[in-house]
Amino acid sequence: MNAPARRQERLGHFLELARTHRPRYLDDLERLVSIDSGSYSADGVNEVADWIERRLGRMGFDVERVGFPPSSDGRRTGDALVGRRRGGLPEASGGRRILLAGHMDTVFEDGTAAARPFRVEGSTAYGPGVSDDKGGLLAGLAALEILTRHGADAYDELVFLATPDEEIGSPASRALIERTAAHVHYGLGLECARENGDVVIARKGVADFRLTVTGRAAHAGIEPERGANAALAAAHLTVALQALNGHWEDVTVNVGVVRAGTRTNIVCPDAELRIEVRAATTTDIQRVTRAIREAADHPGVPGVTVEVEQLDLCPPMEDTPASRRMLGHARRAALAVGIELGAAATGGVGDANLIAGTGIPVLDGLGPVGGADHTPQEWLDITSVPQRIAVLADLIASLGDAGAP
């Protein structure tokens, strides 16, 4: 039997197993959606982590549980999980290490699961986190279980990462994500597919800046000429920075916060701007950073100075030749189970950005089809579950062996 025929046979088996698994998947989804696990609901996130840890252990994964200290304001997140399972094909023989990543937290407050419980209407499931990201986490676990039952171990290592704080930008788990990703060959994001079924080939990066504008106070009625108005300079800067929109494709600049002054009878001595930049490439983020600094060097008001601080940077998940090759594997598997797989770029960020920032090729949106994330209408198409699990399992198997067609 030639390689394409063997792959078709494997996919058929994966799809059969995924269809058999669907009732259990829905039971598990109801269980996880019933747990309030907001980003700062540490106990709820840890309850989800307990459940996932048991599931990984039954599949032969060695699981490391990682706790984090409280934030500077005393708020707690739950733990992260890193599960590892060695395969039968060492790296020296062409085996690859593959990372599957999803998050256990949601955007919803405690009490939401009881107020808006999991339900299924026709072919659609509803509930807090049903799509973002409990449906995706479960798809990843189901794909790993199918691979285990099939005996597909032509890989060096599988790594399953479940994080507790993606919805607030992964402040606690970022270092762990980057450390884990640095030692793998491929990253697979378990966010659910777009509403039209597309996977995600690219995510914009985000850079946050603070501009501190320093002028000189003076009596506004008696000697305003002795002052240097920081509020006026902030206004000039706001106009200049907003005008950067449209200069580069897929780049947005937003002056989201402006603060200035305390009294109307004082020439304003200080002001502050908060700016968000989103861009599809690291190169574009660097271009905008230079433009912001150039604008700050010329505030338009004599006597005013401007300090620029970059507060945060979430790197872009770029559309690269390596991620396109991963997409090719996924598309071939999707066609074999009867679906066409598109690829989307999005402005939203996630843990896949941090994985991509380490230089690892990433494909995201590999869970079932869902939508209306972060809203009371959040949904998951349960008819998409078997095909998406089968495609994910086959993608893992294809990437695991560097010599696979």
UniProtKB/TrEMBL annotation:
InterPro entries in the cross-refs: ArgE/DapE_CS, Bact_exopeptidase_dim_dom, Pept_M20_glutamate_carboxypep, Peptidase_M20, Peptidase_M20_dimer, Peptidase_M20A
The entry's keywords: Hydrolase, Metal-binding, Zinc
UniProt cofactor(s): Zn(2+)
Family matches, as CDD domains: M20_CPDG2
Peptidase M20 dimerisation domain ranges (all copies): 201-301
SUPFAM superfamilies, per the entry: Bacterial exopeptidase dimerisation domain (SSF55031), Zn-dependent exopeptidases (SSF53187)
Region feature Disordered, mapped onto this chain: 69-88
Keyword Zinc (UniProt): yes
PROSITE patterns per the UniProt record, alphabetical: ARGE_DAPE_CPG2_1
Pfam families: M20_dimer (PF07687), Peptidase_M20 (PF01546)
Name used for this protein in its record: M20 family metallopeptidase
Organism field: Streptomyces bikiniensis
